Amino acid sequence: xxxxxxxxxxxxxxxxxxxxxxLAVDPDPYDASIAHQVIGLVLRDxxxxxxxxxxxxxxxxxxxxxxxxxxxxxxxxxxxxALTKAGRTKPGLAALDEAVSIAAGTMTGRVLHRRGGALRxxxxxxxxxxxxRRAAAILHAAGDTIWEARALTAAGLAELAIxxxxxxxxxxxAAESLFxxxxxxxxxxxxxxxxxxxxxxSGDLPLALAHLDxxxxxxxxxxxxxxxxxxxxCAVLLAADLPADALRxxxxxxxxxxxxxxxxxxxxxxxxxxxxxxxxxxxxxxxLARAEADPLRIRVRAAAARCRRAAGIRxxxxxxxxxxxxxxxxxxxPSASRLDAACSAWCSNPADxxxxx
Length: 357
What we know:
Helices cover 77% and strands 0% of the residues. The protein is mainly alpha-helical.
């Protein structure tokens, strides 16, 4: 049964099917706890966090029935992460603290890894690093290679957040090697992707593109669509003053998302990126088309109106649609504000309008 837990991160659809099949035959509380935890993990990370929390609470109740502290610690840690992701920081961290207090041996390292990840989510990066360093040491001593690599990955993300780029790259590189040794190819791809972000933060644009291109090659070999890679490549291309390449990248990624019915929020972010890249190419008509493609917010629609004026196109009543009919971008302000500023600059003096980076 325990082998079902890692499957939730590798093949979540299969894990979900198998967990539900187990519950259908009235298992004992221990096996039922694992099955509900697997369902909770998949929902937490790939679907509905609220439903995931309910499944994890059921898993915890069943774990307490069998009086297994290791089982309880594992579920408490998963629940704590889910609560934190749902914005319920206080109960989330409390669950993680309880998990740490009852864990022993290798499970202590796994729980510390998850508490460190939760602390990173809420911006407590230095506290996160304390947990993640302890976790990596415990897991290394126990020979738990996959979880050690996960702890190093989380540490790298926390270090990147506080701009400790050298250490972050070293941790991502170490994690990449460990994942390669355990055939965790998707996690290995994520590690290389993260190294691209470190290089970008450090200002080494050629190295950033090289890392991101290699990550893209690996994603394709695994038949994984990772639209965040295109978002990151566009940012690097714009910083390298290659707006035409960024526009092509964004358009290709948008097409991939539409074909696969992927996340509309990422598609909307890429539409804004494409609009900015088009303006940087001194092509306000293309910028208008991209900005109007998914007008999620008033500021974005205002930017589209400025692009329309720059392109010499009269407004159309049908161009303004209710925002409630569209998905909302989680944090569109930076892209929208840069687009808005660039449109204003173009309208006032096209020759002096600076590229968006």
